[in-house]
Amino acid sequence: MRRRDILKALATVPFASVLGNCMVDRSAAQAAPPKGKNVQTLQILLEGAFAVVLQKNKDNPNRLIAFVPRFEPDGHGFDHNFFFNDPTTARPAIGKDPAGYHFQLSGQGLKSYPETYIDAGFADFTAYTQKWRLTDRVVTIELPFPNSINFSGRPLHVEFASGRPGLMPTNYILDYYIEDAEKVKLTCSQLGDKCSPSSNCPPGVLRYFFGVSPRSDDGGEKHAVTFFNMMIRRCFPELEEHILEYIEPAEKKGSRTSSALRPRLMPGVLTSDSPAAHLLGVSAVLDCQLIGPVVHTGAKPTGG
């Protein structure tokens, strides 16, 4: 059973500890995002094959550029669906614009940061380069530097082409402190300029969710390794040491049975005679089981 089918049945997400009840239907009164002085934090959640570039600029504000390359014109079958705020409904594909869906968040209303704390879990995929390229993209997100970049869930074991082992998270959590919530504005021309935050936010937090997932049913570790290596070679050619040989499957084959989702009555008190629990190895909403590199640079990109 594919992970998105499990999602529809269980509404399980990788950001479970962060999103709380975000996948649960609520009334309109409860679903309205928080406003005003009580809003203290902005969170940008990225899931899937996003490369994250922290671009330092001398004469302009520092910018974080997150993007997902688009390689399907080469016939590799690695085109991706894009999700915004709703991880169950894909957005229509953008054809001609090389930036794909293009989101921009100004620094207005947010505390500014000259540097960003990056969780040590990203260490195996954090690098520096002065040579990078923006190919055609599924989605491009331009943001100010966040206070921190963290992740949720268990990282996947990987092996680089050199034989070195490593760990790869499969999502990013970007945190900002808000100084004036009324001035915080995320725009996307393809979605009618100003974009509303997720309607399911806890008190004091604004959230935006971005995700990508392979359209093909042939996702998994083979897709992940090939897509990641194409991203490195075409977008970050100086980072060949990050070429991968293997990414651990996000879910082990044969780890589930068809009865896992079958409703059953259970006693209120478990005893030694109670059936064993059916544990679902769900680690993501979407089928993409990788991220891109986290790259520091002081250079502008070439291309797009």
What does this structure look like?
Helices cover 10% and strands 29% of the residues. It contains four helices and 19 strands. The protein has an eight-stranded mixed β-sheet with strand order 7-18-2-3-9-5-14-15, with no helix packed on it. It is globular, with a radius of gyration of 20 Å.
Strand and helix map with partners:
Blueprint (H helix, E strand, L loop, with lengths): L2 H8 L5 H4 L8 H4 L9 E7 L3 E5 L7 E7 L10 E5 L16 E5 L11 E2 L7 E3 L4 E2 L2 E8 L3 E3 L5 E5 L4 E4 L2 E7 L8 E3 L4 E2 L10 E10 L6 H15 L8 E4 L46 E4 L4 E2 L1
Parallel strand pairs: 1-16, 2-18, 5-9, 6-10, 7-18, 8-19
Antiparallel strand pairs: 1-13, 2-3, 3-9, 4-16, 5-14, 10-13, 11-12, 11-17, 14-15
Tell me briefly what this model is.
This protein is mostly beta strands and 304 residues long. The protein contains four helices and 19 strands.
Name the features.
six-stranded mixed sheet; mainly beta; disordered N terminus; eight-stranded mixed sheet; 304 residues; globular; 19 strands
Radius of gyration: 20 Å
Secondary structure class reads mainly beta
- Cα-to-Cα separation, first versus last residue: 38 Å
Helix content, binned percent = 10-25%
Number of strands: 19
Largest sheet: 8 strands, mixed
Please state roughly what percent of the residues sit in beta strands, choosing from under 5%, 5-15%, 15-25%, 25-35%, 35-45% or over 45%.
25-35%
Helix/strand order, N-terminal first: HHHEEEEEEEEEEEEEEEEHEEE
Mean pLDDT: 79
Q: Which regions have little confidence, pLDDT < 50, spanning 5+ residues?
A: 1-30, 253-284
Q: Report the total helices.
A: 4
